[in-house]
Design a protein that fits this description.
about 130 residues; flat; three-stranded antiparallel sheet; 6 strands; binds zinc ion; alpha+beta
Length: about 130
């Protein structure tokens, strides 16, 4: 694959999630590769600063890859306003990343994973079966 003609179609602080999507694409015949996964694994406090692990596909496969990932993505909607602009937040707050960089070691901060509605700012915890 020509690295310069690739495009990033997904990124996450969860290296496992990125590799799972790579495997899903490859099982459908779309070649893909992951970058920054080692940095995100060995220096998790820097993962957010570098944008997490990134999933790349060749530009000619971009449309097909996005369709495959879209089919596999569970459709979520806000329980209050039923808008589908919902994001899953499972990373440490940005201030903890800054403190980790400043002090030179990871600052462990527990943050409850949750969904966030971009439309009405509603937040809710995922159901246990979603993990
Ligand atoms: Zn909402």
């Amino acid at each position: 694959m020509d690295y310069q003609k690739s495009t990033v179609i997904f990124s996450s602080n969860s290296v496992q999630e990125v590799h799972l999507k790579r495997a899903q694409l490859e099982s459908e015949g779309v070649p893909a590769f992951v970058s920054d996964d080692n940095t995100s694994t060995w220096f998790p406090h820097l993962a957010q600063a570098i944008g997490g692990a990134k999933l790349h596909v060749a530009e000619k496969f971009e449309q097909q890859a996005r369709e495959i990932l879209d089919l596999l993505q569970p459709k979520l909607s806000c329980p209050d306003c039923h808008d589908n602009r919902v994001v899953f937040i499972n990373n440490a707050p940005f201030w903890s990343t800054l403190l980790s960089v400043y002090f030179g070691f990871p600052i462990p901060v527990h943050r409850q994973p949750h969904y966030h509605c971009s439309s009405c700012q509603n937040r809710w915890a995922p159901q246990e079966k979603e993990f």
